[in-house]
Amino acid sequence: MCGIIGYTGPLDSKKILLEGLSQLEYRGYDSAGIALCMENSRIHLVRHTGKVSNLKKGCEEINQVSHCGLGHTRWATHGGVTTENTHPHRAGRVILVHNGIIENYHQLTTEFHLEGKLLSETDSEVAAWVLESLYDGDPVKAIAELVKHLKGSYSFCMMFEDHPGEIYAIRNVSPLVAAYTHSGSFVASDLTALIPYTRQYFVVPEDHILRLTSYKVHLYGLDLKELEPEILEVNWNMDAAMKNGFPHFMLKEIHEQPDALKNTILPRLAKGLPDFTDDLIPDFVFEDCDQVHIIACGTAMHAGMAARALMEPLLRIPVTVSIASEFRYEDPLVNDRTIVIIISQSGETIDTLAALRLAKSYGSKTLSVVNVKGSTIARESDYVLYTHAGPEIAVASTKAYSVQLAALYMVCCRMALVRGKYSVEEAEDFMKKLLDSIPAMEAMIEKKDTVKALVTHLINKPDAFFIGRGLDYAFSLEGALKLKEISYIHAEAYAAGELKHGTIALITQEVPVIAIATQENVFSKTISNIREVKARGAFVILLTKESLNVDPGIADIQINIPDIGDRFTVFPIAVVLQLIAYYASVGKNLDVDQPRNLAKSVTVE
Q1: Which residues contact 144 (CB under 8 A, 6 or more apart)?
Q2: What are the residue boundaries of the SIS domain, all occurrences included (predicted)?
Q3: Local structure of 88: helix, strand or coil
């Protein structure tokens, strides 16, 4: 969950590192630091708590030009937010930055007699001192020996004072990408830091050692034999990682959702039907299964919940959704007749990756829905369905959620078609209605000022509740998560019919209740539940369709979405729920894009 960047080459490394850390700050913003290899071959460290802006101020007095260095922005795991715990760490001749968690750090401290050497509380410094203990002048050999002693996840980038101008790296689970250009060699935890300099890159393979010089990138296996990396090309431009006039990345990414859906859906349409030929996903994957098991975390898991509510009634087979961190420690009921769908925006989410590996060990077919080409989950899955959201910088996921849903809806339609649950005409109608959801999203984006006005009823309240039935309940789970993660308002989602079984006790005078009622088959039931909370003093914000008749006085505020098929209302509803959370955060003068305690890519357990 930390941002890493390294550079060696003819340019000013300080400038490149600080700009790169600004791009990577969404991965962690508790503290930041850089290590610069100076002309005398000494390595100079600058570290500051807080955001990268604090580090930039601390670097203003550095006048000497450096051509090689490492940068790191931290999301604290081991040890609090202090200068001593800030990366990079120095251990004798070794300078190290780290993303991940070393599980056996305490054992290593004892084994290598490090008690008197450690200046921080971090597992990362322990790894640095172990590396120093093993180092005999050959960095590649020492790194290969280091990983034999480690348990956990890591991406390390390292410099050695007696090897000026060189950077070394290795990874296990935690992501790293690298590139060589005429401007020098780069390594980073995320592509966004590399895009200003190149569109060609490679994903550093797990358990491979990287050596960067100003004129070459070398890749070695743990047997020390040199290998050729697989070069990939970025399919989005730098503008996608910039705000482009929007006050926050989150608002920009909300606006980008209609185009992201088009980019995900349209290339996979053939004669009006979903077609995964170019994705190399054969129909027998969807035919030869008795159950579907969806695995994800957070927002991606909520996309899975909506997919389950869609798939199970249509396909008439069991569809289970598991939180990845729970699935991996269970004895899950999956087998070689199960298709396991893995959902991850980054393709590097550690719990989801571990769950994927467990599912494969049971013989299940695995299909990943990911946004990042070449990511670990994508490479290890049997089949991959790439979404095309482009980079998502705000910590709170918006467009990644929408394109995950779009991909899952297309999978559901294809499964229904090949399993005989849909005729060709029914599948064509499904896809037409899916495309209709795009202008419906655009219509709700146009209503953002209406949504902005209603959040005055939320921002001074300690609690908020979301209710719905069926698909509407699945939507409400994501709405509650969005509100709590960026506005810090305690928010919970409940199946509306469950209110009277205990949770209605939480309804007090003027407590906000966001009620979603778009499903016609349970509409009257949801309205009855709204009456129940209204009778107990709740302030009700109703989200429904234009065509559904609602008696005056049912809700204090009503927002209507366009009339589209019930199964597809998630797309315009998602926009409304995202805007509610966004404007609540803005109204409370909070940091929308970088909420406290959170980071974008969760690569630690």
Answers
A1: 209, 220, 222, 224
A2: 281-421, 454-595
A3: coil
3-state secondary structure 400-434: HHHHHHHHHHHHHHHHHHHCCCCCHHHHHHHHHHH
In sequence order, what DSSP letters do the residues of 555-577 get, joined into one string? Answer: -SEEEEEP---GGGTHHHHHHHH
CA 310, CA 300: separation in Å to the nearest integer?
Answer: 15
- Locus of tokens 């004892």: 110
Contact 465, 514 (CB under 8 A): yes
Distance CA 392, CA 563 (A): 29
State the residue for tokens 């930041």: 32
Closest by CA to 355, choosing from 294, 288, 291, is 294
- The residues pairing with 6 across neighbouring beta strands, listed in sequence order, are 70, 187
User: Dihedral angle at the C-alpha atoms of 449, 452, 457, 462, nearest 10 degrees?
Assistant: 170
pLDDT tens digits for 28-40? 778 999 999 998 8
Rounded to 5 degrees, φ, ψ at 417 are: -70, -50
- At 193-213, the pLDDT tens digits run 888 899 899 999 999 999 999
Q: Do residues 208 and 220 make contact, with C-beta atoms less than 8 angstroms apart?
A: yes
Which pairing describes strands 94-102 and 232-233: parallel, antiparallel, or unpaired? unpaired
List, by residue number, the catalytic residues.
2, 600
Asked whether the beta carbons of 493 and 480 are under 8 A apart, the reply is yes
**CA–CA separation, 247 and 244 (whole Å):** 9
Q: What's the token pair of residue 62?
A: 């550095």
The structure's pTM equals 0.82
pLDDT tens-digit series, residues 379-421: 999 999 999 998 888 889 999 999 999 999 999 999 999 999 9
Task: Report the Cα 416 to chain-centroid distance in Å.
Answer: 29
* Residue 472 near residue 517 (C-beta atoms within 8 A): yes
Count Cβ neighbours within 10 Å for each residue of 410-448 and write b for 16 or more, e otherwise.
bbbbbbbbbbebbeeeebbebbebbbebbebbbbbbebb
- Is 445 in a helix, a strand, or coil? helix
